[in-house]
Amino acid sequence: MPGSTCAVRSCTSRSGGDGVVVFHSAGERVRERWIEKCNQPAEWIPPKQLIVCSRHFDASDYERDLKNELLNLPVRKILKREAIPSLELGNFQPNLPFSFPTPCIESTPSVIEDLPTNDTPSCATYEEEIKRLKAEMEALQKSSSEKIKDLEIQNKKMKKLLADANESIKTLNLEKSYIKSDLERIKKMPKTMSETEKVNLILEVLKGTLTKNQIEIMMGHKKFAHWTDEELQIAFTLRYMGKRAYNFVTKQMLIPLPSLSKLHRWASKLNIQPGNLQCVLNVMKCTAPSFEETERVAVLTFDEIKVREQIEYDQKHDKVLGPHTQMQVAMVRGLYGKWKVPVYLDFDQKMTPEILTNLIKELYEIGYTVKVCCSDMGGGNQGLLRDLGISPEKTWIIHPMDSKEKIYFCADAPHCLKLVRNWLLDTGFILGDGTTVSKRPLEALVALVAAPGNPLEVSSCFKLTEAHIKCEKTARQSVRLAAQLCSHTTEVALQRYLPGNDPDEALRLSKVIGIINRWFDIFNSYILYSLPLKSAYGTSLEEQDKHLEKMHNLMSTMRCTGKTFLQIFQKAIMLSITSLQLIRKEMEMRFKKPYILTHRLNQDLLENFFSQIRTRGGLHDHPSPMEAIWRVRMIILGKQSGIVQANNNANALESSKVDGDNFLTATAINVIEEAVAEADPDDPDEVVNADEPENYIPPEDSASENELHYTDVQEEMKGDGIQYLAGWVAFKFKKEFPDLGTPTRLVKSGDMNNNQLPTWVQQLSFGGLMQPSSAWLEKAHLMESIFNKLNGKDSIFKGPNIVATCSRQVLREIADVPEKVIHTFILQRTRIRIKFLNAYAKFRKEQEKLAKEEEKKKKEEEKHLREQERRKIQEEQKQRKIEERAAREEVRRNVKEEKERKKAEEKAIREENRKKKQEEEKKRKAELVAAKEEDKRRKLIEKAATASIRKRKNNLPLPDNPKRRKEVRKYNKLVN
Question: Residue ranges of region Disordered (predicted)?
Fold first, then answer.
């Protein structure tokens, strides 16, 4: 900062010095605190732009310049906004170099030892200065800890990026080794070969690894190449995986590839804009003739993905895009053909009949007939169906381009399954006969597996956990949890163990779950032939239709508790069942295709596509609108871009179709599909489900009223688990040692005592599981006891050769069982124990955490109670004061009233006296008036008498003399 001088007193740093010092200006929020730290005299006037040099800031006050570090540029000193000067504020040492170590708590300066000396100007006492410096030290430590947390988060991100890069490098190194081996073979070729023969041989050897252009450039025959679309597509796929991987191949492995600018120009030709993707439709039009008519029968699926809400500028089209929150995407796939592609995208746009009709028309014009439309039945899509007149009774519309064609509508089956699970757990169901089912039997079943103080390590119901029942937050979006809860094994477990206080409700719930499970099996088929309900719809039509009819009746007659009308998921399931049956009939009549792989009628492909869009951005899984368009372009152009993807809505169900349908033991052994005979009995990893969550999470409150009943059922479940483990071992060695067990399909119809209940394996199996022989089952229980004796009940042997040691111990006591069978059993049992201990350790930590939280909560409650008691006392004191004040006020009011009463009485007396006086005065005045009147009357009489006399005198005749007459008149006047 040119012309800058540090504002700290005694600091001589100026700009243009040694180049080490950096100057920082104070922000509005910290300006006052910076002024205090400058230690200037009271008369000092701070400048408008307060400048402090970097000598007075700790390393923890700076942010890490990750961008310049990664780009190998000079690292800048970026000061945090809340940073406060803390170093060399008193006795400044001018020529100390600035150090910028890695921030850590230990590097925080000891401000207690650096107390100001006598020559430090300060008006505060030493005690106040110590308190102030302690507060600064705490602030510095807090800032350091926050910085460490930020660095840890950044470190995790960098580690993830590094791991991705290492994985790419590992793959590329492997490819490099293949190329080196090919080159070695080329070097060993006979030297007598002609140049043309050498070139042809090289092309023949490397044609599976490198293209012709790459080989010719590497051999020096050409310096530049006109790259083909196939080569550009392969290069684009590598660029799609990462720029560093692309540079590694070109610069380190020296394999010729198109330049990044060439790829950019090639990719920019694919014009992707909101609306119908015309570039994709053009490609589809070109490829349509290569497909048969049945392969061009299409399923249209649409849904929304969340994007980052921001405004962006599209330089290519010179327009502003955004802000948007959702991106609507429509994809089309073959009902029988193995292809899929996005054909529409737009932002903040719900699917409307006009958009849907226009898209169907364009697909029809280029040779593709949309037969099915699939959605998740969300709020916007419900409005679409209403506008189109779609209902459980009428599940189709007429094709807008062909009146003979119908377009059917289906709901996403995994989404419907989640909704069924959610409503069952939240409200329960009222069945058509008026009876009810709820989650209570399921809670009791989970409590049996994870009873407090006595959790089962080996159990027939190991997959059911409290997470299936609580189902909170993101767990409600998990199809795997829903499929495991509404599975055949849950149905059988409810029938067999009758958990809870109401056995009838357990049986009713078992029946409902069985119907739901069989419906989902039919609507989630991936292979043509398997078990009848897991095969493509139409391969076992009579049985499949029977179970679909049961599901249709269940959805139409039951009601969710507290509701009087059908819910959306019920209508959606009824709609899908009707549509599926009509689609199959039409396909059989038109194309002689009597079957449908029903997984093509759900949204798996769209969820996969969304996963690729999210994972393409690494840690930025919510792209902006422009980023989303760019990622869609890369996915469309990239060859086999689906290799970079994450698990999706129902992806896990595709990779492990039997999850939730069969049992084994406590989280270690993976389920084996009964009807899949291709299982490798020598592959021990086949039975380990690494993606399974820890299956021991005991419930918070699962105490039973009948402990004996709990113990009996737990023992039965443990025995069933050992039986299933023994059956699994027998299945692995069914060809080598057939006497270990018998397939249940051979013992289910006969060989059973009519009075004997079926075993767990027999009750669970559809015919493909192995029923262990009684001799082998007895030896399995003996091996279980030996295993527990050697390892202990809740521990495991930590020495070397744990499996071999335990196997030898078993061989000493059981000599007639093959060693490999014993080894397999002990190996799997060891895996079960390890999984169990890991889960139990995790559970203990969670319990300790819960205990600490409970203790903290208890202390807070006690504190709250004390606070309430204190407030109560304060309120009582306050009330008492109020009452005392009210009493004093009452006394004061009474005194005042008494005074006022006395005053009123005195006033009344005075008023009465006044009235008496007034009466007396009035009477006296009346008497005076009467006297006056009497006197007046008397005077009048006298006057009248006088007047009479005078009149008589006046009646005398006047003298004739005028003068005398005048005197007489004057006299009379005076007299009168």
Answer: 852-976
Strand 297-306 versus strand 369-375 pairing type: parallel
92 pLDDT above the threshold of 50: no
CB 721 within 8 A of CB 497: no
**Cβ distance 578 to 395 under 8 Å?**
yes
Strand 275-276 to 340-347 pairing: antiparallel
Long-range contacts of 742-751 (CB under 8 A, 24+ apart): 742/770, 742/771, 742/773, 743/767, 743/768, 743/769, 743/770, 743/771, 744/768, 744/769, 744/770, 744/771, 747/771
Q: How far apart are CA 867 and CA 199, in angstroms?
A: 91
Q: Where are the beta strands (DSSP E) in 307-459?
A: 312-314, 319-321, 326-334, 340-347, 369-375, 396-399, 402-411, 429-430, 436-437, 450-451, 454-455
Which has the closest alpha carbon to 827: 843, 851, 844, 810?
A: 810
DSSP 557: H
Residue 378: CA count within 13 A, CB half-sphere: 11
CA angle 56, 57, 62 (to 5 degrees): 155
> What's the CA gap between 546 and 330, in Å, rounded?
33
Residue 249 DSSP code:
I
Alpha carbons within 13 angstroms on the beta-carbon side of residue 974 total 5
Confirm if 645 and 239 have CB atoms less than 8 A apart.
Answer: no
Give, for 222, the enclosing helix (H) or strand (E).
none
| Bridge partners, residue 266, by sequence | none
- Helix/strand number for the chain, H first, E second: 29, 20
User: Within 10 Å of residue 967's Cβ, how many Cβ atoms?
Assistant: 12
Domain regions of the chain by residue span = 23-162, 189-267, 271-412+603-638, 944-976
d(CA 357, CA 330): 13
Q: Which residue has the tokens 């430090």?
A: 120
The span from the CA of 471 to the CA of 476, in Å, is 5
Both tokens assigned to 722: 């050992």
Question: Is the dihedral angle over the CA atoms 827, 833, 838, 839 positive or is it negative?
Answer: positive
Mean pLDDT across 436-454? 83
Single-letter code of the amino acid located at 723 = Q
Position 431 scores a pLDDT of 94
Which helix (H) or strand (E) element contains residue 743? strand 741-743
Task: Decide the pairing of beta strands 402-411 and 369-375.
Answer: parallel
Residue 276, token pair as written in the block? 């119908």
Q: Is 103 helix (H, G, I), strand (E, B) or coil?
A: coil
